[in-house]
Design brief:
Elements lengths: L1 H26 L6 H7 L3 H23 L3 H24 L3 H22 L3 H22 E4 L4 E4 L5
Antiparallel strand pairs: 1-2
Helix pairs in contact: 3-4, 4-5, 5-6
């Protein structure tokens, strides 16, 4: 009987320990190993994609504003805010405080545009869109070269 009682206690302890371990494992954040770290890095090629996305989305947003399609334009503005967040990650990973700041201004501006459009205030949305574009110009002056007339923008050599 003592062997059965001892075995029962041991079994309960093992079950309780396994249960607690499973809960701890489920609640623990995922490990940030080398593979996760590499996946999180934003490459210059990805930045180029983000820049093209910002350009085309901003063009579409302006067209929708002219056509008074405010709800659709608001979706574009929300997409811009998300993409500016990705640009912010790129500059943060390279410790470029000015680039981070300009990306944050772009994200804040896009969020303000979305808010104005959602509220039905096209005039305010246009003003906020101009503010957002000003942050783009500052960042381009520091980190980009070329332009629409030169066949597109590229990252300035040695800037990142």
């Amino acid at each position: 009987m003592r062997i059965t009682w001892g075995a029962s206690i041991l079994a309960l302890a093992v079950i309780a320990g396994a249960s607690r371990t499973a809960t701890t494992i489920e609640a623990a954040p995922p490990a940030a190993g080398a593979g996760a770290q590499a996946a999180a890095n934003v490459t210059p090629e990805q930045l180029e994609g983000y820049m093209k996305s910002i350009s085309s989305t901003q063009t579409a947003l302006r067209a929708k504003l002219k056509e008074n399609q405010l709800a659709d334009a608001a979706k574009d503005a929300q997409q811009l805010a998300t993409t500016f967040g990705d640009v912010e990650k790129f500059f943060a990973q390279r410790s470029k405080a000015d680039g981070v700041s300009w990306a944050q201004l772009g994200k804040t501006g896009a969020t303000a545009v979305a808010g104005a459009l959602t509220a039905g205030d096209a005039a305010k949305a246009n003003t906020e869109l101009g503010n957002m574009a000003a942050s783009c110009k500052q960042c381009h002056a520091a980190y980009r070269e070329g332009g629409p007339q030169a066949g597109g923008y590229t990252i300035k050599a040695g800037s990142i």
